[in-house]
Write a structure and sequence with these properties.
36% helix; 24% strand; 7 strands; seven-stranded mixed β-sheet; single chain; alpha/beta
Length: 171
């Protein structure tokens, strides 16, 4: 059974698609965004999907985050406000550590902060295991009319870095 969690769900499209494909989905957005969370519930109802909806603020460890053990963490366009990157990666790392073998799948549009993202991935012991051009899935005649650089990234814990740090602590 696949357990999926969408961070910063907003309109919830990736999570809804995962639910339609049979995954048990938890949709999250900022705990303070009550209107957004209510809208997510309405979208689930309208689509006849039984997704769990949860307020989750990145970087804040409330009781609800400790019960989450997703196989797949989804983040569609969550890398847009660089001031939130550190809290996002802290939250992702926490969730990946609670669910060994899990992955974080996100989209990335290079607006700014590319080097910050690389720095934070190292800081939080993460590695990108797959990076795809976001337009590669589209027919070329449609993709040619779009601008920008959108990537689809699969991110996991960097076990080599974790092992090195555990060895260093043991010394």
């Amino acid at each position: 059974m696949s357990l999926s969690l969408q961070l910063g769900a907003g309109t919830s499209l990736p999570g809804l698609a995962a639910a339609k494909l049979g995954s048990h989905v938890t949709l999250t957005d900022d705990s303070n965004s009550l209107e957004v969370l209510d809208n997510i519930r309405k979208v689930c109802y309208l689509n006849k999907l039984k997704c769990k909806v949860l307020g989750l603020t990145w970087g804040i460890w409330n009781i609800s985050i400790f019960d989450l053990k997703p196989n797949i963490i989804l983040g569609a366009d969550v890398l847009y406000e660089s001031s939130a990157f550190d809290d996002l990666f802290a939250t992702v790392t926490f969730l990946l550590q609670k669910s060994p073998g899990s992955v974080f799948i996100t989209t990335y549009h290079n607006r700014s902060g590319h080097h910050l993202i690389e720095f934070l991935m190292v800081k939080w012991g993460l590695k990108c295991v797959k990076l795809l051009d976001g337009f590669s899935f589209m027919p070329s005649h449609k993709a040619s009319g779009l601008s920008g650089n959108i990537q689809l990234a699969e991110i996991m814990l960097n076990n080599e870095q974790t092992n090195e740090s555990n060895i260093a602590k043991a010394r």
